[in-house]
Amino acid sequence: MATAELAGKHLVLGMTGGIACYKIAELTRLLTKAGATVQVVMTEAATQFITPVTMQALSGRPVYTSQWDARVPNNMAHIDLSREADAIVIAPASTDFLAKLAHGMADDLLSTLCVARDCPLLVVPAMNRQMWQNPATQRNVTQLRADGIDVLGPDSGPQACGEVGDGRMLEAAATYEAIASFFSPKILSGRRVLLTAGPTFEPLDPVRGITNRSSGKMGFALARAAQQAGAEVHLVAGPVALETPWGVFREDVQTAQHMHDAVMRSVADADIFIGVAAVADWRVDHASEHKIKKTAERALPTFTFVENPDILAAVAKLPHPPFAVGFAAESGDLEVHGEEKRVRKNVPLLIGNLGPLTFGLDDNEVIMFEAGGATKLPRADKQTLARALIVEIAKRLPDTSLIR
Protein backbone atom coordinates (compact mmCIF):
# COMPACT_ATOMS: atom_id res chain seq x y z
CA MET A 1 0.00 0.00 0.00
CA ALA A 2 1.39 3.41 -0.96
CA THR A 3 1.42 5.62 2.11
CA ALA A 4 -0.40 8.67 0.66
CA GLU A 5 -2.94 7.33 -1.84
CA LEU A 6 -5.86 8.73 0.18
CA ALA A 7 -4.11 12.02 1.00
CA GLY A 8 -6.60 14.83 1.45
CA LYS A 9 -9.62 12.53 1.75
CA HIS A 10 -11.92 13.09 4.71
CA LEU A 11 -13.98 10.08 5.73
CA VAL A 12 -16.80 9.74 8.24
CA LEU A 13 -16.43 6.22 9.62
CA GLY A 14 -19.70 5.06 11.11
CA MET A 15 -19.67 2.07 13.44
CA THR A 16 -22.72 0.00 14.37
CA GLY A 17 -22.99 -2.81 16.91
CA GLY A 18 -21.22 -6.09 16.20
CA ILE A 19 -18.18 -8.12 17.15
CA ALA A 20 -16.54 -7.02 13.89
CA CYS A 21 -15.94 -3.62 15.54
CA TYR A 22 -12.49 -4.92 16.47
CA LYS A 23 -11.56 -4.84 12.77
CA ILE A 24 -12.28 -1.13 12.58
CA ALA A 25 -9.34 -0.33 14.83
CA GLU A 26 -7.00 -1.71 12.17
CA LEU A 27 -9.02 -0.15 9.35
CA THR A 28 -8.69 3.26 10.98
CA ARG A 29 -4.94 2.80 11.24
CA LEU A 30 -4.70 1.88 7.55
CA LEU A 31 -6.81 4.83 6.46
CA THR A 32 -4.86 7.39 8.48
CA LYS A 33 -1.55 5.89 7.34
CA ALA A 34 -2.74 6.38 3.74
CA GLY A 35 -3.26 10.08 4.39
CA ALA A 36 -7.00 10.21 5.09
CA THR A 37 -8.58 12.02 8.01
CA VAL A 38 -11.11 9.83 9.81
CA GLN A 39 -14.05 11.11 11.82
CA VAL A 40 -15.57 8.26 13.82
CA VAL A 41 -19.28 8.21 14.66
CA MET A 42 -20.57 5.33 16.79
CA THR A 43 -24.00 4.02 17.63
CA GLU A 44 -24.71 3.19 21.26
CA ALA A 45 -24.52 -0.52 20.36
CA ALA A 46 -21.05 -0.07 18.84
CA THR A 47 -19.74 1.29 22.16
CA GLN A 48 -20.59 -2.06 23.76
CA PHE A 49 -17.93 -3.74 21.57
CA ILE A 50 -15.13 -1.14 21.45
CA THR A 51 -14.76 2.13 23.32
CA PRO A 52 -14.85 5.66 21.90
CA VAL A 53 -11.56 6.25 23.72
CA THR A 54 -9.88 3.59 21.59
CA MET A 55 -11.26 5.02 18.36
CA GLN A 56 -10.31 8.56 19.35
CA ALA A 57 -6.74 7.46 20.02
CA LEU A 58 -6.51 5.74 16.63
CA SER A 59 -8.21 8.47 14.58
CA GLY A 60 -6.75 11.44 16.41
CA ARG A 61 -10.18 13.09 16.46
CA PRO A 62 -13.02 13.25 18.99
CA VAL A 63 -15.62 10.54 18.55
CA TYR A 64 -19.33 11.37 18.26
CA THR A 65 -22.08 9.13 19.62
CA SER A 66 -25.08 11.42 20.23
CA GLN A 67 -27.05 13.76 18.00
CA TRP A 68 -27.36 16.07 21.01
CA ASP A 69 -23.57 16.50 21.34
CA ALA A 70 -23.00 20.03 22.62
CA ARG A 71 -19.48 20.17 21.13
CA VAL A 72 -21.09 21.11 17.81
CA PRO A 73 -21.84 24.84 18.12
CA ASN A 74 -25.22 24.70 16.37
CA ASN A 75 -26.12 21.30 17.89
CA MET A 76 -26.52 19.90 14.39
CA ALA A 77 -23.91 17.15 14.30
CA HIS A 78 -26.02 15.22 11.80
CA ILE A 79 -25.53 18.10 9.34
CA ASP A 80 -22.06 19.41 10.15
CA LEU A 81 -20.18 16.10 10.32
CA SER A 82 -20.90 15.11 6.73
CA ARG A 83 -20.59 18.43 4.91
CA GLU A 84 -16.83 18.22 4.40
CA ALA A 85 -16.72 14.45 4.01
CA ASP A 86 -15.64 12.81 0.76
CA ALA A 87 -17.60 9.72 1.79
CA ILE A 88 -19.35 8.06 4.70
CA VAL A 89 -18.29 4.47 5.38
CA ILE A 90 -20.45 2.33 7.67
CA ALA A 91 -18.32 -0.51 9.05
CA PRO A 92 -19.46 -2.80 10.47
CA ALA A 93 -22.95 -2.33 9.07
CA SER A 94 -25.41 -4.40 11.09
CA THR A 95 -28.61 -6.00 9.83
CA ASP A 96 -30.63 -3.42 11.74
CA PHE A 97 -28.70 -0.49 10.29
CA LEU A 98 -29.04 -1.75 6.71
CA ALA A 99 -32.81 -1.89 7.29
CA LYS A 100 -32.78 1.67 8.60
CA LEU A 101 -30.90 2.92 5.54
CA ALA A 102 -33.19 1.08 3.13
CA HIS A 103 -36.25 2.70 4.67
CA GLY A 104 -34.83 6.18 5.33
CA MET A 105 -35.12 5.95 9.10
CA ALA A 106 -33.33 8.58 11.19
CA ASP A 107 -33.60 7.85 14.90
CA ASP A 108 -30.00 8.40 16.07
CA LEU A 109 -26.94 10.44 15.06
CA LEU A 110 -25.48 7.98 12.55
CA SER A 111 -28.72 7.14 10.72
CA THR A 112 -29.74 10.83 10.62
CA LEU A 113 -26.30 11.75 9.31
CA CYS A 114 -26.69 9.22 6.47
CA VAL A 115 -30.13 10.51 5.50
CA ALA A 116 -28.91 14.14 5.56
CA ARG A 117 -25.69 13.50 3.61
CA ASP A 118 -24.64 14.98 0.28
CA CYS A 119 -21.65 12.66 -0.24
CA PRO A 120 -21.26 8.98 -1.29
CA LEU A 121 -22.18 6.24 1.18
CA LEU A 122 -20.42 2.87 1.44
CA VAL A 123 -21.57 0.07 3.74
CA VAL A 124 -19.61 -2.98 4.89
CA PRO A 125 -22.09 -5.61 6.15
CA ALA A 126 -21.31 -7.84 9.14
CA MET A 127 -23.78 -10.36 10.50
CA ASN A 128 -24.65 -14.01 11.06
CA ARG A 129 -25.12 -16.05 7.87
CA GLN A 130 -28.84 -16.56 8.48
CA MET A 131 -29.33 -12.84 9.07
CA TRP A 132 -27.55 -12.13 5.78
CA GLN A 133 -29.58 -14.74 3.90
CA ASN A 134 -32.89 -13.56 5.36
CA PRO A 135 -35.17 -12.38 2.51
CA ALA A 136 -35.77 -9.06 4.26
CA THR A 137 -32.04 -8.36 4.44
CA GLN A 138 -31.57 -9.27 0.79
CA ARG A 139 -34.45 -6.94 -0.17
CA ASN A 140 -32.84 -4.16 1.84
CA VAL A 141 -29.45 -4.69 0.21
CA THR A 142 -31.06 -4.65 -3.25
CA GLN A 143 -32.75 -1.36 -2.36
CA LEU A 144 -29.50 0.14 -1.07
CA ARG A 145 -27.73 -0.69 -4.33
CA ALA A 146 -30.63 0.75 -6.30
CA ASP A 147 -30.27 3.93 -4.23
CA GLY A 148 -26.61 4.23 -5.31
CA ILE A 149 -25.09 2.99 -2.05
CA ASP A 150 -21.96 0.84 -2.48
CA VAL A 151 -22.15 -2.48 -0.61
CA LEU A 152 -18.67 -3.88 0.11
CA GLY A 153 -18.77 -7.59 0.83
CA PRO A 154 -19.66 -9.49 2.84
CA ASP A 155 -17.05 -12.21 3.06
CA SER A 156 -17.61 -15.89 3.75
CA GLY A 157 -16.02 -17.93 6.51
CA PRO A 158 -16.09 -18.73 10.24
CA GLN A 159 -18.30 -16.44 12.29
CA ALA A 160 -18.26 -15.42 15.95
CA CYS A 161 -21.35 -17.56 16.60
CA GLY A 162 -19.42 -20.65 15.54
CA GLU A 163 -21.24 -21.05 12.23
CA VAL A 164 -19.66 -20.77 8.78
CA GLY A 165 -21.06 -18.91 5.78
CA ASP A 166 -21.72 -15.55 4.14
CA GLY A 167 -22.14 -12.47 6.27
CA ARG A 168 -18.67 -12.15 7.77
CA MET A 169 -17.26 -8.63 7.45
CA LEU A 170 -14.35 -8.12 5.07
CA GLU A 171 -10.99 -8.03 6.81
CA ALA A 172 -9.57 -4.58 7.52
CA ALA A 173 -7.05 -4.76 4.66
CA ALA A 174 -9.71 -5.80 2.15
CA THR A 175 -12.04 -3.05 3.34
CA TYR A 176 -9.22 -0.55 2.93
CA GLU A 177 -8.57 -1.81 -0.62
CA ALA A 178 -12.23 -1.45 -1.53
CA ILE A 179 -12.30 2.13 -0.21
CA ALA A 180 -9.10 3.05 -2.05
CA SER A 181 -10.53 1.52 -5.22
CA PHE A 182 -13.72 3.57 -4.83
CA PHE A 183 -11.75 6.81 -4.93
CA SER A 184 -9.48 5.89 -7.85
CA PRO A 185 -10.30 7.49 -11.23
CA LYS A 186 -11.88 4.83 -13.46
CA ILE A 187 -9.71 5.47 -16.52
CA LEU A 188 -9.89 1.78 -17.48
CA SER A 189 -13.61 1.34 -16.89
CA GLY A 190 -14.96 -1.37 -19.18
CA ARG A 191 -11.51 -2.66 -20.10
CA ARG A 192 -10.25 -6.18 -19.54
CA VAL A 193 -6.62 -6.59 -18.51
CA LEU A 194 -4.66 -9.84 -18.70
CA LEU A 195 -1.41 -9.61 -16.79
CA THR A 196 1.48 -11.94 -15.89
CA ALA A 197 3.64 -11.51 -12.80
CA GLY A 198 6.41 -13.17 -10.81
CA PRO A 199 9.01 -15.74 -11.83
CA THR A 200 8.54 -19.12 -13.44
CA PHE A 201 10.01 -22.37 -12.10
CA GLU A 202 11.47 -24.98 -14.45
CA PRO A 203 11.99 -28.35 -12.71
CA LEU A 204 15.19 -30.37 -13.00
CA ASP A 205 13.67 -33.16 -10.94
CA PRO A 206 10.75 -33.33 -8.45
CA VAL A 207 12.58 -31.23 -5.83
CA ARG A 208 14.96 -28.95 -7.76
CA GLY A 209 14.51 -26.38 -10.46
CA ILE A 210 15.64 -23.22 -12.22
CA THR A 211 14.00 -19.92 -11.33
CA ASN A 212 14.94 -16.26 -10.84
CA ARG A 213 14.79 -13.52 -8.21
CA SER A 214 11.59 -11.82 -9.38
CA SER A 215 9.37 -11.11 -6.36
CA GLY A 216 6.20 -10.37 -8.37
CA LYS A 217 5.76 -7.05 -6.54
CA MET A 218 5.68 -4.89 -9.67
CA GLY A 219 3.22 -7.15 -11.45
CA PHE A 220 0.90 -7.38 -8.44
CA ALA A 221 1.09 -3.59 -7.99
CA LEU A 222 0.04 -3.16 -11.62
CA ALA A 223 -2.82 -5.62 -11.19
CA ARG A 224 -4.02 -3.64 -8.17
CA ALA A 225 -3.67 -0.31 -9.99
CA ALA A 226 -5.56 -1.62 -13.02
CA GLN A 227 -8.40 -2.93 -10.84
CA GLN A 228 -8.61 0.38 -8.99
CA ALA A 229 -8.76 2.11 -12.40
CA GLY A 230 -11.95 0.17 -13.13
CA ALA A 231 -10.60 -2.71 -15.21
CA GLU A 232 -11.57 -6.36 -14.96
CA VAL A 233 -8.20 -7.94 -14.15
CA HIS A 234 -7.00 -11.51 -14.74
CA LEU A 235 -3.63 -12.07 -13.08
CA VAL A 236 -1.57 -15.08 -14.15
CA ALA A 237 0.99 -15.47 -11.35
CA GLY A 238 4.14 -17.54 -11.09
CA PRO A 239 5.21 -18.96 -7.70
CA VAL A 240 5.19 -15.98 -5.32
CA ALA A 241 4.05 -15.47 -1.73
CA LEU A 242 1.95 -12.35 -2.29
CA GLU A 243 -1.69 -11.70 -1.43
CA THR A 244 -4.09 -11.38 -4.34
CA PRO A 245 -5.09 -7.73 -4.86
CA TRP A 246 -8.68 -6.86 -4.01
CA GLY A 247 -11.09 -7.55 -6.86
CA VAL A 248 -8.52 -9.35 -9.04
CA PHE A 249 -9.01 -12.84 -10.45
CA ARG A 250 -5.80 -14.82 -9.91
CA GLU A 251 -4.61 -17.93 -11.71
CA ASP A 252 -1.47 -19.60 -10.32
CA VAL A 253 1.00 -21.33 -12.62
CA GLN A 254 4.51 -22.71 -12.27
CA THR A 255 6.39 -23.15 -15.53
CA ALA A 256 6.75 -20.94 -18.60
CA GLN A 257 4.67 -23.41 -20.60
CA HIS A 258 1.90 -23.27 -17.97
CA MET A 259 1.98 -19.47 -18.10
CA HIS A 260 1.91 -19.46 -21.89
CA ASP A 261 -1.07 -21.82 -21.97
CA ALA A 262 -2.99 -19.78 -19.38
CA VAL A 263 -2.40 -16.57 -21.32
CA MET A 264 -3.39 -18.03 -24.68
CA ARG A 265 -6.62 -19.43 -23.19
CA SER A 266 -7.73 -15.99 -22.05
CA VAL A 267 -6.09 -13.43 -24.34
CA ALA A 268 -8.97 -13.33 -26.84
CA ASP A 269 -11.10 -11.63 -24.18
CA ALA A 270 -8.44 -9.07 -23.21
CA ASP A 271 -8.24 -5.42 -24.26
CA ILE A 272 -4.81 -5.04 -22.69
CA PHE A 273 -2.02 -7.56 -22.10
CA ILE A 274 0.81 -6.64 -19.70
CA GLY A 275 3.65 -9.15 -19.58
CA VAL A 276 5.45 -8.33 -16.34
CA ALA A 277 6.53 -11.87 -15.40
CA ALA A 278 10.20 -12.82 -15.54
CA VAL A 279 9.71 -15.88 -17.72
CA ALA A 280 12.49 -18.46 -18.04
CA ASP A 281 13.91 -18.52 -21.57
CA TRP A 282 14.84 -22.21 -21.36
CA ARG A 283 13.75 -25.39 -19.64
CA VAL A 284 15.37 -28.79 -19.19
CA ASP A 285 14.47 -31.30 -21.86
CA HIS A 286 13.03 -34.36 -20.11
CA ALA A 287 13.37 -33.42 -16.44
CA SER A 288 14.06 -36.40 -14.18
CA GLU A 289 11.00 -38.16 -12.77
CA HIS A 290 12.92 -38.90 -9.55
CA LYS A 291 15.29 -36.93 -7.39
CA ILE A 292 18.78 -36.91 -8.86
CA LYS A 293 21.01 -38.52 -6.23
CA LYS A 294 24.45 -37.27 -5.31
CA THR A 295 26.90 -40.14 -4.80
CA ALA A 296 30.69 -40.46 -4.80
CA GLU A 297 30.58 -42.81 -7.79
CA ARG A 298 28.15 -40.84 -9.93
CA ALA A 299 29.41 -38.23 -12.38
CA LEU A 300 28.01 -34.71 -12.33
CA PRO A 301 24.61 -34.60 -14.04
CA THR A 302 24.31 -32.96 -17.45
CA PHE A 303 21.21 -31.31 -18.85
CA THR A 304 19.96 -30.51 -22.31
CA PHE A 305 17.95 -27.32 -22.58
CA VAL A 306 15.14 -26.38 -24.95
CA GLU A 307 13.65 -22.97 -25.57
CA ASN A 308 10.43 -21.95 -23.81
CA PRO A 309 7.59 -20.27 -25.71
CA ASP A 310 7.84 -16.48 -25.98
CA ILE A 311 4.58 -15.33 -24.40
CA LEU A 312 4.81 -11.64 -25.28
CA ALA A 313 5.77 -12.31 -28.90
CA ALA A 314 3.00 -14.89 -29.23
CA VAL A 315 0.41 -12.37 -28.04
CA ALA A 316 1.76 -9.66 -30.36
CA LYS A 317 1.55 -12.01 -33.36
CA LEU A 318 -2.17 -12.73 -32.92
CA PRO A 319 -4.40 -11.62 -35.81
CA HIS A 320 -6.24 -9.19 -33.49
CA PRO A 321 -3.94 -8.68 -30.50
CA PRO A 322 -4.81 -6.67 -27.41
CA PHE A 323 -2.75 -3.58 -26.65
CA ALA A 324 0.43 -5.40 -25.59
CA VAL A 325 2.87 -4.03 -23.03
CA GLY A 326 6.12 -5.84 -22.31
CA PHE A 327 8.63 -5.62 -19.49
CA ALA A 328 12.39 -6.07 -19.80
CA ALA A 329 14.77 -6.59 -16.88
CA GLU A 330 18.35 -5.91 -17.99
CA SER A 331 21.66 -5.96 -16.15
CA GLY A 332 23.15 -3.12 -18.24
CA ASP A 333 22.79 -0.96 -21.38
CA LEU A 334 19.07 -0.65 -20.72
CA GLU A 335 18.54 2.12 -23.30
CA VAL A 336 19.96 -0.10 -26.06
CA HIS A 337 18.49 -3.45 -25.04
CA GLY A 338 15.07 -2.07 -24.14
CA GLU A 339 14.33 -0.54 -27.55
CA GLU A 340 15.83 -3.54 -29.33
CA LYS A 341 13.53 -5.86 -27.42
CA ARG A 342 10.48 -3.70 -28.12
CA VAL A 343 11.14 -3.84 -31.86
CA ARG A 344 11.93 -7.55 -31.81
CA LYS A 345 8.76 -8.39 -29.86
CA ASN A 346 6.73 -5.99 -32.03
CA VAL A 347 4.86 -4.34 -29.15
CA PRO A 348 3.80 -0.68 -28.94
CA LEU A 349 5.13 -0.17 -25.42
CA LEU A 350 7.92 -1.81 -23.42
CA ILE A 351 8.86 -0.97 -19.83
CA GLY A 352 12.54 -1.49 -19.02
CA ASN A 353 14.38 -1.60 -15.71
CA LEU A 354 17.64 -2.83 -14.30
CA GLY A 355 16.28 -6.07 -12.86
CA PRO A 356 19.19 -7.14 -10.60
CA LEU A 357 18.97 -3.76 -8.83
CA THR A 358 15.19 -3.87 -8.24
CA PHE A 359 14.21 -7.53 -7.73
CA GLY A 360 12.60 -7.87 -4.32
CA LEU A 361 12.71 -4.16 -3.51
CA ASP A 362 9.67 -2.00 -2.81
CA ASP A 363 10.71 0.76 -5.25
CA ASN A 364 11.76 0.87 -8.87
CA GLU A 365 12.87 3.12 -11.72
CA VAL A 366 11.80 2.43 -15.29
CA ILE A 367 12.08 3.68 -18.86
CA MET A 368 9.15 3.49 -21.30
CA PHE A 369 10.20 2.55 -24.84
CA GLU A 370 7.87 3.23 -27.76
CA ALA A 371 8.14 4.16 -31.43
CA GLY A 372 8.31 7.87 -30.62
CA GLY A 373 11.26 7.50 -28.24
CA ALA A 374 12.08 6.69 -24.63
CA THR A 375 10.64 8.31 -21.48
CA LYS A 376 12.14 7.86 -18.03
CA LEU A 377 9.81 7.80 -15.04
CA PRO A 378 11.21 8.98 -11.69
CA ARG A 379 12.07 6.44 -9.03
CA ALA A 380 9.13 5.69 -6.75
CA ASP A 381 7.60 2.93 -4.66
CA LYS A 382 6.22 0.22 -6.93
CA GLN A 383 2.57 0.98 -6.18
CA THR A 384 2.98 4.66 -7.04
CA LEU A 385 4.90 3.67 -10.16
CA ALA A 386 2.19 1.16 -11.10
CA ARG A 387 -0.49 3.85 -10.93
CA ALA A 388 1.63 6.13 -13.13
CA LEU A 389 2.13 3.33 -15.66
CA ILE A 390 -1.59 2.57 -15.80
CA VAL A 391 -2.22 6.24 -16.59
CA GLU A 392 0.38 6.07 -19.37
CA ILE A 393 -1.09 2.87 -20.77
CA ALA A 394 -4.62 4.32 -20.70
CA LYS A 395 -3.43 7.35 -22.70
CA ARG A 396 -2.14 5.08 -25.47
CA LEU A 397 -5.14 2.80 -25.87
CA PRO A 398 -6.80 2.82 -29.28
CA ASP A 399 -10.50 3.59 -29.22
CA THR A 400 -11.24 0.22 -30.80
CA SER A 401 -9.79 -1.71 -27.87
CA LEU A 402 -13.21 -1.73 -26.20
CA ILE A 403 -14.65 -3.69 -29.13
CA ARG A 404 -13.40 -7.27 -29.07
UniProtKB/TrEMBL annotation:
Keyword field: Decarboxylase, Flavoprotein, FMN, Ligase, Lyase, Magnesium, Metal-binding, Multifunctional enzyme
Transmembrane segments: none
Gene: coaBC
EC number: 4.1.1.36, 6.3.2.5
InterPro entries assigned: CoaB-like_sf, CoaBC, DNA/pantothenate-metab_flavo_C, Flavin_trans-like, Flavoprotein
Listed name of the protein: Coenzyme A biosynthesis bifunctional protein CoaBC
Binding-site residues for CTP, renumbered to this chain: D281, K291, P309, D310, I311, L312, F327, K341, K345
Role of this protein: Catalyzes two steps in the biosynthesis of coenzyme A. In the first step cysteine is conjugated to 4'-phosphopantothenate to form 4-phosphopantothenoylcysteine, in the latter compound is decarboxylated to form 4'-phosphopantotheine. Catalyzes two sequential steps in the biosynthesis of coenzyme A. In the first step cysteine is conjugated to 4'-phosphopantothenate to form 4-phosphopantothenoylcysteine. In the second step the latter compound is decarboxylated to form 4'-phosphopantotheine.
